[in-house]
């Protein structure tokens, strides 16, 4: 046992004890966060414009603060970029996290002195909770890698600005710097393929024990390692024992990644966003991610099926129910108020409060009222893959409303690492599982409004080439699982 792993054990136990304390008092914990947020917001431009100086209760807060999206707060962000103080939070942000928006182009999300610990400590606590639960700590002594964006920052309105993963890179604790890979120089490479090639060269002879990143980009790293060495990742790195991931559902990628490793390794799922670190997996054998209730974020929820209503229900933690899809709304010590993150979640536990991410409010297929969501397509694909030991590299789904002949249908674009022995059985398995989950989709099939889905098998590297063509290869970029139009589908065909 090395020194770092030795001291990690009592530290992990202390963190786990604190997690048990706040998670067992969820309403009090959230009320404390709410009260702290109100102390600051009333003295900001936003607070004064929304007359929040006398607000004391959540019910009063809801009446004053509308649900917002980035377009609504953009004028405040512009004021911050122009040098104004005390706009959304006291003073100025210490960073602006730059992220791609679906309708706003580039988004600039504030990170404050008070909110940066949420991003840093949450990832740390996820690892320490894992140590406390499992007793496995040897990975702390080896080399660790996070496949992320560049840590190089620019100045926007005098504020350091960059990708969240690059910002976080500047706050890696000193005691882990000697364990961290890749080097700063390599991490600053903008071309993703060149960057991964350089990471391969830097890590190929190291004792890698922890690997972290978004699954499809980790798979690219694994593929390059295997191509260069002829060895499986688990053979190349015999002490590799922990895979940390986030950004997308792991399950569609699991078979391929585990095949590349050659054995199973423990994994921890994280739910970070530029707007805040929301949740992490705190148990290896339990469903769901622990919602972080004590970290400067006060949560609200809107039932997903009401999200686009003129006056949707808007509730806090006390009123959520298990098994319901909710749009998640954030109020944070970074200065976001009634902010719709754009994600949908479902509670799977209330003791403690745990969630799973089910999709995006804007990512669904409902060309005929079926409202098929990401959770449903991912479960259907996972089930079909398990039947034939199929390995999927990437996929996306789009409606075909005006086919050349026959009824409309959902078209699945799938790139396989291991193609199904019987593609028709595989297709039917997905479709039947989807019908079992979504009664509206089933009714449309049975009513001869839609025909069963069709699969278009994509050539190797189709999705990599598509993401490259959009300037979104690697980093924190993710391919939308579902579209309600043919834009991605048509561009995939052109790129291919």
CATH architecture descriptor text of the domain at 364-495: 2-Layer Sandwich
Strand order of the largest sheet: 6-3-7-8-9-10-11-15-14-13-12
Please give the largest β-sheet: 11 strands, mixed
- CA-based gyration radius: 23 Å
Describe the structure.
By secondary structure, the protein is an alpha/beta fold. It has a domain at 364-495: GMP Synthetase, Chain A, domain 3, CATH 3.30.300. Helices cover 39% and strands 23% of the residues. The protein contains 18 helices and 20 strands. The protein has helices at residues 3-23, 26-41, 45-49, 58-64, 70-81, 116-134, 164-169, 174-177, 184-187, 192-203, 215-229, 233-236, 251-261, 374-388, 423-437, 439-446, 462-469, 487-495, and strands spanning 95-100, 106-111, 143-146, 154-156, 159-162, 180-181, 208-212, 242-246, 266-273, 276-280, 289-291, 297-303, 325-332, 339-350, 353-360, 364-365, 372-373, 391-400, 409-418, 454-457. Strands 6-3-7-8-9-10-11-15-14-13-12 form an eleven-stranded mixed β-sheet. A four-stranded mixed β-sheet has the order 2-1-5-4. Helix 1 (3-23) packs across helix 6 (116-134). The longest helix has 21 residues, at 3-23. It starts with a helix and ends with a helix. The model has no long low-confidence stretch (mean pLDDT 90).
Write a compact overview of the structure shown:
This protein is of the alpha/beta class and 496 residues long. The protein has helices at residues 3-23, 26-41, 45-49, 58-64, 70-81, 116-134, 164-169, 174-177, 184-187, 192-203, 215-229, 233-236, 251-261, 374-388, 423-437, 439-446, 462-469, 487-495, and strands at residues 95-100, 106-111, 143-146, 154-156, 159-162, 180-181, 208-212, 242-246, 266-273, 276-280, 289-291, 297-303, 325-332, 339-350, 353-360, 364-365, 372-373, 391-400, 409-418, 454-457. The N and C termini lie far apart (50 Å).
